[in-house]
Write a structure and sequence with these properties.
The protein is globular, with a radius of gyration of 18 Å. The chain has a single domain, classed as TIM Barrel (Alpha-Beta Barrel), CATH 3.20.20. It contains nine helices and twelve strands. The strands form three sheets. Strands 1-2-3-4-7-8-9-12 form an eight-stranded parallel β-barrel. A two-stranded antiparallel sheet has the order 5-6. Strands 10-11 form a two-stranded antiparallel sheet. The termini are far apart. Helix 7 runs parallel beside helix 8 and helix 8 packs across helix 9.
Length: 289
């Protein structure tokens, strides 16, 4: 397996998807520092696909990013599902297990990531569930800030909501830089101030992704396009604030050939190197005034 030069200050990975992308990674063994998978998509695999998966993750460190925990949901936690996740984690020993600070089920699976109300009652509810999951898994959860399009019955800011949960549940943060930018445009706040307010010591890794801008003040978080210039700028600021945090290039739809993803991986490394060298990030264009 190839490796990036040792002097590079950051680990960068991409998501492993079955199909042509998996074949390209197997064939080329690109210079990546890790692969990320949604564990529920690989839990019940057998035969040749399972063998291919195990060969690949012997070549690369593994990060896991779940879709179905529904940590903020109103329905009881699904302990059978959590136990299946634990078996997967115990078998493959990933670097970490991350999930979304959202909910995706009630009496059925909603197939979307729904926002949790920014309220004190919701904090109590979520913290209790995080503690139960962490105890069941025997490890800390890493939770991602999510994009949202409405803030139902909000009593608190998004910053206060997230930081309270991290502190009270003693869990960690997957900081999605694209989601911060998307929310900053849709809800008119300063994305750099949001990044600056996140507790550095709890940020385990970052996501960057593309989105769809429908209107000047409306962005849809699609993960189906290249990373935009404003998100690259915000990523540079994030590195200057947090240091060389491991970073995943997230692409879930309209997945291009591997060479195009690797060009964006190279851009992540270049931004990290500039930040590491103390070169200032590009000043932002204010959208939140």
């Amino acid at each position: 397996m190839q490796h990036p030069p040792a002097a590079l200050p950051i680990d960068v990975g991409i998501g492993l998807r079955r199909g042509s992308l998996m074949h390209e990674i197997e064939t080329e063994l690109p210079a990546l520092n890790f692969l990320e998978v949604a564990p529920e998509n690989w839990l019940r695999l057998g035969g040749a696909v399972k063998r291919r998966f195990e060969v690949l993750i012997a070549q690369y460190p593994l990060y896991t990013h779940g879709l179905s925990l529904s940590i903020g949901g109103p329905a009881p936690l699904d302990f059978a599902f959590i136990d299946a996740i634990k078996l997967f984690l115990d078998r493959y020993q990933p670097v970490l297990y991350s999930e979304h600070l959202s909910f995706c089920s009630d009496n059925a699976h909603l197939y979307d990531l729904m926002p949790i109300p920014f309220t004190e009652a919701a904090i109590d509810h979520v913290v209790d569930r995080i503690v139960q999951v962490q105890d069941r898994l025997g490890q800390r959860l890493v939770l991602e800030n999510v994009s949202y399009y409405t803030a139902p019955t909000a009593e608190l800011s998004e910053i206060d909501f997230i930081t309270a949960i991290l502190a009270r549940a003693d869990c960690d943060l997957l900081l999605d830089v694209n989601n911060v930018y998307v929310n900053s445009v849709n809800h008119q706040y300063d994305p750099r101030a949001f990044i600056d307010a996140m507790p550095c010591e709890r940020v385990r890794y970052l996501h960057v992704a593309g989105h769809l801008q429908l209107e000047p003040d409306l962005i849809i978080d699609t993960h189906g396009a290249p990373v935009s210039d404003p998100v690259w700028d915000l990523l540079a600021h994030t590195y200057q604030r947090l240091g060389p945090v491991p970073t995943l290039l997230e692409r879930d739809f309209e997945i291009p050939p591997l060479r195009e993803l690797l060009a964006e991986v190279a851009q992540i490394r270049a931004i990290a190197e500039r930040a590491h060298s103390g070169i200032p990030a590009t000043p932002p264009t204010a959208r939140w005034a």
